[in-house]
Amino acid sequence: MDLVSADLKLRSFLKEDADALVKLCNNINIWRNIRDALPHPYQLSDAHNFIQLATSKTPQEIFAIDKKNELVGCIGIHPQDDVYRFSAEIGYWIGEPYWGQGLATAALQLIINYGFETLGMSKLYAGCFEFNKASQKVLVKAGFRREAILKKAVFKNDSFYDEIRYAIFRDDDENKRWAKTLVIGQI
Fold this sequence. Notes:
This protein is of the alpha+beta class and about 190 residues long. About 30% of the residues lie in helices and about 35% in strands.
């Protein structure tokens, strides 16, 4: 499934994305801002394993962020279970050469629509490390609001950090702009 806006496309990962994944992910500035599940250094075998994982879920949870047929990042939406079954966690990264172009915000707008309209979620949330100010700004720009600060909940690079949790709700009138601002199509 592809989710398309005027700026970019969210699509399934392809085997052909492996080299681009290595190029983008083998970057300490990416690794510093996401969970340790992303190895550093990042090798071709890591890319192949990730692509296999990313293409194994139905409904689709992990998307390649594609701008003009070029891989620029990744975004995932992960539905929770049990009493949290109408909530989903969102995670994303944009390759450093593409920072500052509004791509994360555009990708978030597409995944918000997918989460609410296709997956039927009521709440979407994302966590940022306290030092990742750029991602915090992206989430606010996409309509998320700061929901909580989880004190010293993250251990990254030999130190403890706060996680700043942001959320957006399907029924929040103020946040319904996610449905109005998208140019979306499914191919």
